[in-house]
UniProtKB/TrEMBL annotation:
CDD domains: UAS_ETEA, UBA_FAF2, UBX_UBXN3B. GO terms for molecular function: ubiquitin binding. It holds the Pfam family FAF1. SMART domains: UAS. Residues 357-439 form the UBX domain. This is FAS-associated factor 2. It is found in: Cytoplasm; Endoplasmic reticulum; Lipid droplet. GO terms for biological process: ERAD pathway. Gene3D superfamilies: DNA helicase RuvA subunit, C-terminal domain, Glutaredoxin, Phosphatidylinositol 3-kinase Catalytic Subunit, Chain A, domain 1. Residues 303-348 have a biased composition (Basic and acidic residues). One of its GO terms (cellular component) is lipid droplet. The lineage of its organism: Eukaryota, Metazoa, Chordata, Craniata, Vertebrata. Keywords: Coiled coil, Cytoplasm, Endoplasmic reticulum, Lipid droplet.
Length: 445
C-alpha cells in the first residue's frame, strides 16, 4: 500500500525550512520538516531545541531524566556555572531559615497547584507569540523605567534575528532571561548587570539580547533554553557551522565573577571562532576568485559575442551590397531591354525613306558621338520628330541626345514641349536639301 503523500508546503513554510536547514546544518530536508512541524513551524524554538540536543540539553519533545543532566566541559558539551544561594550563618540565621521553611514550602506548593489548575481553565497566553519585536521593546522600556538608562546595549529584535546577526558577524551572543518574580532578579540587575565594568565588557565583546519570561517571546526562548533558575544567561556562538550554546550562567552572580566566567567561556571557544573566521575568509576568497573568474569568462564571452556580432554585421553589409549590385544589374538589364524594345518599336514606326530623285527629299548626314556617320533621306514636310526617332532607333545612338546644326549652331526642337507641342517640319526648321547634323550625347547630363 502506497504511503500517503505529505501536503505541499506554503511559500512561508518553505522559506522557514531553508532557513532552519541553514542555521542547523542538517542535510536531511525530511528531518528539518519533522522538527519544524513538532514546533508548529516556530523556527526560533525549533533552532534552539535542535542546538540544545547537540549540546546535551534534552529536547522539549524528549522529557529529561529524573536526575538533572551533568554537563562536563571536558566532554565538549555546554559549560554550566550555577551560583547557589548562600547558606544560613549562625544560630539566628538557621533559626530564621527553619521557621520560614514551612511557609515557603506551602507558598510555592500552593502557587504551583494554582498555576497547574489555571492551565486547564485558561491556556497560558505566553504560548502565542504575535509580536516578538514588540515584546523585546516593551521589556527594554520597562527595564529602563525601573533601573535607568545605564545598562548594556540591548539587541532590539527577535531572538531569531539576534542569532542570524551573531552568525553573520561571527560574534558571541549573550542571552539574558529576566524573571520578574524571582527574588534575585532585582539585585542582579542593579548590582551586576548595570555596573560600569559589566556594561563596558558586554558592549565591546558581544551582542546582548534580553527579554522577560513574562513576555511571549521571552517565554518561547525560555522553553528552548530550559533554564533552572534566575537570573539566567546563555552564551551562544557559531561552532562547527551551527549556532551553539557554549555556556550557561545561572543564579545571582557578582560583576567580577560574571566577567571572569564570560572571559573563560570566550577563551575556551576562541579557537572555534577563529576557525570559523578563517574558513569564512577562505570561502569569501574562493567566492571572490570564482566571481573574478566568472567576470573574466563573461568579459571573454561578451568579446566573442561582439566579434560574432560585428562579423554578422559585416556579412549582412556585404550581402546587402551584393544584393544592391545584383538589383542594380537587374535594373540596368531591364532598362537596356526596355531601351532596345523602344528602339525596335521606333524603327518599325518610321516612314519609308524617299527616293533620291524626289524633289521634296532632304539628304542628311548625321555625325554620331562615336565619330561614325549615318546618312538618310527625309521629306521636307516631315516633322523633326521623325529625324529624332530615326536616330533613336540606331544602336550606336546614346539613350539621351540632341541634334545640333553646325553653322549657325542651334539645337533642333525635335521633341514636343509645353510651348511647342508640335515640333516643326524640316522645311520650317530651315533645313536645305543637303545637311550635316551633329548628335550630342546628353546621357551624363
Amino acid at each position: 500500500m502506497a504511503a500517503p503523500e505529505e501536503p505541499e508546503l506554503s511559500q512561508a513554510q518553505t522559506e522557514k525550512l531553508l532557513q532552519f536547514q541553514d542555521l542547523t546544518g542538517l542535510e536531511s530536508m525530511d528531518q528539518c520538516r519533522r522538527t519544524l512541524e513538532q514546533h508548529n513551524w516556530n523556527i526560533e524554538a525549533a533552532v534552539q531545541d535542535r542546538l540544545n540536543e547537540q549540546e546535551g540539553v534534552p529536547s522539549v519533545f524528549n522529557p529529561p531524566p529524573s536526575r538533572p543532566l551533568q554537563v562536563n566541559t571536558a566532554d565538549h558539551r555546554v559549560y554550566s556555572y550555577i551560583v547557589s544561594r548562600p547558606q544560613p550563618r549562625g544560630l539566628l540565621g538557621w533559626s530564621y531559615y527553619l521557621i520560614m521553611l514551612p511557609f515557603r514550602f506551602t507558598y510555592y506548593t500552593l502557587l504551583d497547584i494554582f498555576r497547574f489548575a489555571l492551565r486547564f481553565i485558561r491556556p497560558d497566553p505566553r504560548g502565542r507569540v504575535t509580536d516578538p519585536v514588540g515584546d523585546v521593546v516593551s521589556f527594554i522600556h520597562s527595564f529602563e523605567e525601573k533601573y535607568g538608562q545605564a545598562h548594556p546595549v540591548f539587541y532590539q529584535g527577535t531572538y531569531s534575528q539576534a542569532l542570524n546577526d551573531a552568525k553573520r558577524e561571527l560574534r558571541y551572543l549573550l542571552v539574558y532571561l529576566h524573571g520578574d518574580d524571582h527574588q534575585d532578579t532585582d539585585e542582579f540587575c542593579r548590582a551586576t548587570l548595570c555596573t560600569e565594568e559589566v556594561i563596558t565588557f558586554l558592549n565591546t565583546r558581544m551582542l546582548f539580547w534580553a527579554c522577560s519570561t513574562s513576555k511571549p517571546e521571552g517565554y518561547r526562548v525560555s522553553q528552548a533554553l530550559r533554564e533552572n533558575t534566575y537570573p539566567f544567561l546563555a552564551m551562544i556562538m557559531l561552532k562547527d557551522r551551527k549556532m551553539t550554546v557554549v555556556g550557561r550562567l545561572e543564579g545571582l552572580i557578582q560583576p567580577e565573577d560574571l566577567i571572569n566566567q564570560l572571559t573563560f567561556i570566550m577563551d575556551a571557544n576562541q579557537t572555534y571562532l577563529m576557525s570559523e573566521r578563517l574558513e569564512r575568509e577562505e570561502r569569501n576568497q574562493t567566492q571572490v576568485l570564482r566571481q573574478q573568474q566568472d567576470e573574466a569568462y563573461l568579459a571573454s564571452l561578451r568579446a566573442d559575442q561582439e566579434k560574432d556580432r560585428k562579423k554578422r554585421e559585416e556579412q549582412e553589409q556585404r550581402r546587402q551590397e551584393e544584393e544592391k549590385v545584383r538589383q542594380s544589374a537587374l535594373a540596368e538589364e531591364r532598362r537596356r531591354r526596355t531601351l532596345e524594345e523602344e528602339k525596335e518599336r521606333k524603327s518599325e514606326c518610321l516612314p519609308p525613306e524617299p527616293p533620291a530623285d524626289d524633289p521634296e527629299s532632304v539628304k542628311i548626314v548625321f555625325k554620331l558621338p562615336n565619330d561614325t556617320r549615318v546618312e538618310r533621306r527625309f521629306l521636307f514636310g516631315q516633322s523633326l520628330t521623325v529625324i529624332y526617332d530615326f536616330l533613336f532607333s540606331l544602336k550606336e545612338t546614346p539613350e539621351k541626345f540632341q541634334i545640333v546644326t553646325n553653322f549657325p549652331r542651334r539645337v533642333l526642337p525635335c521633341l514636343p514641349t509645353e510651348e511647342q507641342p508640335n515640333p516643326p517640319t524640316l522645311k520650317e526648321a530651315g533645313l536645305s536639301r543637303s545637311e550635316v547634323l551633329f548628335v550630342q550625347d546628353l546621357t551624363d547630363d
